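User: I'll paste a sequence; please echo it back and then give the predicted structure.

Assistant: Echoing your sequence first, then the prediction.
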Amino acid sequence: MENPKDLKYTKDHEWVRVEGNKAVIGVTDVAQSLMGDVVFVELPEIDAEFAAGEAAANIESVKAVSEVFAPVGGKIAEVNTALEDTPELINKDAFGEGWIFTVEISDSAELDNLLTVEEYGKLLVEGE
């Protein structure tokens, strides 16, 4: 699967879709593929505040438990409660129905620290 060009990315394989003052966050197709079958997602609490780079959620797969980091700081505005009953949405549609949470962005300048699709692609090629 190709990485959507309209998203921003992190070195930890999260994606970010900016919608006004909110950021929708999920894990990339590469990340879900490496994790294997997702069996449980621990979502953050609504209104919880996280700094950029802080662990905000956990994804449990048949292989391991992986942390999902907040790519930008802010307050959790929404969580994808569908993942409570169907965590495999992350495997089936990582860039769509498998989104994990949204953050009200506290400092939009932090978006400049994220990777473009080209930069993320280069990261994958380099194998980091």
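The domain at 8-106 is CATH 2.40.50.100 (OB fold (Dihydrolipoamide Acetyltransferase, E2P)). The helical segments are 29-35, 82-85, 89-92, 117-126.
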